[in-house]
Amino acid sequence: MERLILLRHGKAEAGSPSGEDFDRALTERGRRDAVLMAQALAAAGLTPDVAIVSTAARARQTWEAAAPAFPRAEVVLTKALYNADPDAILAQAEAAGGAYGVVMVVAHNPGLHQLALDLLRRCKGSPDQERLHAGFPTGAAAAFDLAGKRFSMFTPKSLGGGA
Question: Topology of domain 3-159, per CATH?
Answer without folding.
Answer: Rossmann fold (3.40.50)
